[in-house]
Amino acid sequence: MSQEGPFTLDDLVRILLAGAGETEPVTHDASFEELGYDSLALLETYTRIERELGIELDDEVVPASLTPAQLVTAVNARLASAQSA
Predict the structure, then answer these.
(1) Residues 76/6, Cβ–Cβ less than 8 Å
(2) How far is 85 from 73, CA to CA, in rounded Å?
(3) Residue 48's Cα: distance from chain center in Å?
(4) How big is the CA angle at 72 (ends 48 and 74), to the nearest 5 degrees?
(5) pLDDT tens across 3-44, in order?
(6) Cβ proximity of 19 and 44 under 8 Å
(7) Nearby residues of 43 by Cβ (< 8 Å), 6 or more positions away
């Protein structure tokens, strides 16, 4: 499935809920660690994002995306580069 428009924090929250079942509020600037997401939950999240949006996130994105805002930015950058290719 392709994404119409930018990937948003709401999109990320939906994917986090589907994959990790977390119900804690997600804020842009808190780290995933502070929000209680472990590496397994994040791996599931990245996999779901890739599958749902039909993109591949670079290996550098995974460790670099320490906050939801950083991940949303990385996903939107990847979507933009995929659309221009």
Answers:
(1) yes
(2) 18
(3) 8
(4) 90
(5) 567 999 999 989 988 877 666 667 778 888 888 888 888 889
(6) yes
(7) 62
Position 16: which residue type?
L
Give, in order, the Cα–Cα distances in Å from 65 to each of 1, 84, 85: 23, 23, 23
CA distances from 80 to 11, 15, 21, 85 (A): 16, 20, 29, 9
Instruction: Give the pTM.
Output: 0.84
Taking Cα atoms as reference points, which of 14, 58, 32 lies closest to residue 1?
14
Q: CB neighbours (10 Å) of residue 35?
A: 17
